């Protein structure tokens, strides 16, 4: 189970890889980035219960979520109760 503090902010990172070198190297790096992103998006969809298309939108760029949004999305299971 995953919990977050009430005032926390969570971020879904955009999957990234470094690109550089000769054109064939860049092509291979881009292909690997696309495969990795697809795999990560499928995992997010499976773990959160969100549609694959919605996950793709959220991972297109870094996506910040409040604790309530993260809970609604399915990234966390609850909000920690604190005295502060």
Q: What would the keywords be for this entry?
A:
single chain, 84 residues, alpha+beta, 2-enoyl-CoA Hydratase, Chain A, domain 1, two-stranded parallel sheet, two-stranded antiparallel ribbon, 3 helices, 4 strands, ClpP/crotonase-like_dom_sf, ATPase binding
Describe this structure in words.
This is ATP-dependent Clp protease proteolytic subunit. Pfam families: CLP_protease. It comes from Rubroshorea leprosula. The protein is α+β, with helices and mostly antiparallel strands and 84 residues long. It has one domain (3-15, 22-79): 2-enoyl-CoA Hydratase, Chain A, domain 1 (Alpha-Beta Complex), CATH 3.90.226.10. Helix content is 49%, strand content 14%. It has 3 helices and 4 strands. The protein has a two-stranded parallel sheet with strand order 1-4. Helix 1 (23-48) crosses helix 2 (52-59). The protein is elongated.
DSSP E strands, number: 4
Q: By helix and strand content, what is the structural category?
A: alpha+beta
Strand content: 5-15%
Number of helices: 3
What is the CATH superfamily? Answer: 2-enoyl-CoA Hydratase, Chain A, domain 1
Mean pLDDT: 88
Gyration radius, to the nearest Å? Answer: 16 Å
Specify the helix fraction band.
40-55%
In the CATH scheme, the class would be: Alpha Beta
- Domain tally: 1
Low-confidence stretches: none
| N-to-C series of helices and strands | EEHHEHE
CATH topology: 2-enoyl-CoA Hydratase, Chain A, domain 1
Largest β sheet strand count, sense and barrel closure: 2 strands, parallel
Question: Could you give the distance between the termini?
Answer: 22 Å
CATH architecture: Alpha-Beta Complex
How are strands sequenced across the largest beta sheet?
1-4
Shape descriptor: elongated
């Amino acid at each position: 189970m995953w919990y977050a503090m009430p005032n926390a902010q969570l971020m879904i990172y955009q999957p990234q890889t470094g690109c550089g070198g000769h054109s064939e190297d860049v092509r291979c790096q881009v292909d690997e980035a696309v495969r990795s992103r697809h795999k990560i998006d499928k995992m997010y969809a499976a773990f959160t219960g969100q549609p694959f298309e919605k996950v793709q939108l959220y991972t297109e760029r870094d996506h910040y979520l409040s604790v309530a949004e993260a809970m609604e999305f399915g990234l966390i299971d609850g909000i920690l109760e604190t005295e502060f």
